[in-house]
Amino acid sequence: MDVMGKGRDRGSATIWTVALMALVFAVAMAVAFAGTARVARHRAQGAADLSALAAARLAFVGSDRGCAEAASIAAKNGSAVTRCSVGDDGVVEIEVAMKVALPLKGRVVMAARARAGPVHVTDPDGWRRTDEGESTGADGRARTDADEPVMAGDEEPAGEREPMRAD
């Protein structure tokens, strides 16, 4: 007979606490595994993006040179270029593969693709810079002093301004 008036529920809180801790641990591990896979995917995409940019920089020099540079950048990022193509317009398409170790799955291959095109450097006013450092407009004409942007306060020389009046 129970002298203290307590029934058969003695110690059940411990069992519920252990079950809740196991559930929290399982959810935490699932989040950690998903996070690890996501980080691996982002690393592969970063390697593809960097490789495509490197190849696009050299797109008009030669597709072999651009793809070689892309392969070098990809290798430095722990991946390998599986496909590299340079179009006539200078757009580069890169595919990379990266081997990563994921929990419960072991070693898997993450693949990523990226595209990059030629870069045309323009100044803030929209004039395209040439290799000689000159600026040209969209119509190809050279920039002149008349095309220079007017800055605030540069509208007229200081000596030609009318004096301010207090009205």
Task: Describe the fold and architecture.
By secondary structure, the protein is α+β, with helices and mostly antiparallel strands. The protein has a domain at 12-118. The chain has helices spanning 12-57, 63-76, and strands spanning 80-86, 92-102, 106-116, 128-129, 135-136. The strands form two sheets. It has a three-stranded antiparallel beta sheet with strand order 1-2-3, covered by helices on one side. It has a two-stranded antiparallel sheet with strand order 4-5. Strand 4 and strand 5 (135-136) form a beta hairpin. The longest helix has 46 residues, at 12-57. The N and C termini lie far apart (105 Å).
State the major sheet. Answer: 3 strands, antiparallel
Whole-number average pLDDT? 77
Number of helical stretches of at least 4 residues = 2
**Gross geometry:** elongated
Radius of gyration: 32 Å
